[in-house]
Amino acid sequence: MKMIKHSLLFLFFLGAMSCTTVQKTQESKEKQPNIVLLFVDDYGWSDLEHRNETFKTPNISQLKTESMEFTRAYIPTPTCSPSRASMVTGKEAARLQMPRHIPHEHADGSNTHEFHKWEIDPVRRGSKNWLPLEEVTYAERIKDFGYYSAFIGKWHLGHEPYHPIHQGFDEQIGVSNFGHPKSYYPKFFKDNNAYTEFDDQEGVYLTDVMTDTTIHFLENYDKDQPFMLSVWYYTVHGPHIGKKELVQKYLDQGMTKKYAEYHAMVECMDISVGKIMATLKRLNMDDNTMVILTSDQGGYFENLPLSGGKRQNTLGEGGARVPMFIKYPNKVEAGSECNTPIQTIDIFPTVMEVASGKKYTDDNIQGKSIMPLLQGKEMEERNLYFMRSYEDQYAAIMNGDWKLKKYHSGKFELFNVVEDISEKNDLINAEAEAARVDKMKKELQEWEEEVYAGWKEVTDDNSYLYLLPKSKKKEKKKLEASK
Questions:
Q1: Considering only CA atoms, which of 100, 139, 131 is closest in space to residue 116?
Q2: Which 3 state secondary structure label does DSSP give 139?
Q3: Cβ atoms of residues 413 and 396 within 8 Å
Q4: pTM for this structure?
Q5: Strand order in the sheet with 227-232
Q6: What are the angstrom distances between the C-alpha of 242 and each of 200, 204, 219, 235, 413?
């Protein structure tokens, strides 16, 4: 009888241990958060209502109260395709030999040639027309930690053979070959890849479609694994076509049509963010979801008080500095700010640390985890580097408060971007900064040489396509591939 009792007690003890083990395993899984990355196109640092009252962004303002705002977040190569390539790989786009956006050689948005050159680029550098498949994306790496990866929206890193589903993502929705829609009302795109079911529907707005797609994903996600959802908006990239009912509101305020259209696009994007955040809350996902909101480069219009933007002085603060908010419940102090300069390449290793719960190191990328900053600690000081290849201005180095910009013509500029946020006081010839100038010039040159050492030679033959910028299209729309 005693033996039976002992056996029963032992079995009960084993069962209790088993239940505890299961419970701990479940708790461990629950601690692995979902990750939502909201990536807005051409959204300027100043285009938020807490910096410019003409904009209506109450949902992003609410996100700000729940997040850490990075007031000095930057893009290594501030232009469409390179900004995406650098964020998704954790690498400086210059090292991928992609210092420019991807143009489109064929009518369907595809490319035959691996590289293109830009007619007015002083050094006529070759730039890749797709993200090579051998590059490791965050979607591929996060699989190691049990995540499911979904992609919605603008890719602009290559045509069909290089789409997200071939770069580690488990599914893709709304992906076009093109870098922007032809209209925000149907038909949306020139190719037949994205949202073609809406081609004959009047009054449907692209940003709303993307929002509904995102909400549908969240409502129907039933996999027994955490997810990383990348929502890369087409908005607020041109053509600047706002939602009609919102545009009228801004016209009634006395805005010109172009500003009314843009303000309406920003407000619609903000509404989208609000709906996504509300869905996470309604589905009881918000407490276990990290949300990142940022942009791919500075805005198309004025970015005051910053200098520059998408179209000119792009390595100025107005072109390279972008909004960034990170919400990480119970891990990041809500409503906090961080003024340490970071770059979007830092998202890759940061996400890996969140996914794995461990420190992440990767010698193949240049990004650094910003988890110390998210925890209210400091990071080791480092240089940040910038490069694009369209015009005379092409490279920059940032160290702390200081930025040095470089031009092919031999010109340099030096600014303290904290004391002089508008970059009005060029200190390149200031005697007091001579040693700083020499040091930063030397470090930038060494970085350039290291970058160029990994570049593939692109010669003047039929291995690439010459293209002219839009300003030259009246003279000649396209130069034929060399024969």
A1: 100
A2: helix
A3: no
A4: 0.90
A5: 171-173, 148-153, 227-232, 34-40, 289-295, 324-327, 68-70, 336-338
A6: 19, 12, 27, 10, 37
Q: Over the stretch 60-116, which tens digit does the pLDDT of each residue have?
A: 999 999 999 999 999 999 999 999 999 999 999 999 999 999 999 999 999 999 999
Strands 464-467 and 115-118: what pairing?
parallel
Q: Give the pair of three-digit tokens for residue 249.
A: 């509101």
Which is it for the CA torsion 58, 60, 64, 70, positive or negative? negative
**Tens of pLDDT, residues 270-281:** 999 999 999 999
348 has which bridge partners?
none
**Percentages (nearest 5) of helix, strand, coil residues in the chain:** 35, 15, 50
The secondary structure of 406-422, three-state, reads: EECCCCEEEEECCCCCC
Q: What contacts 188, CB < 8 A, 6 or more positions away?
A: 176, 181, 182, 194, 195, 198, 199, 206, 209
Closest CA to 218 of 115, 288, 303: 288
Give the 3-state secondary structure of residue 190: coil
Are residues 152 and 227 in contact, defined by beta-carbon separation less than 8 angstroms? no
- Coil/strand/helix, residue 6: helix
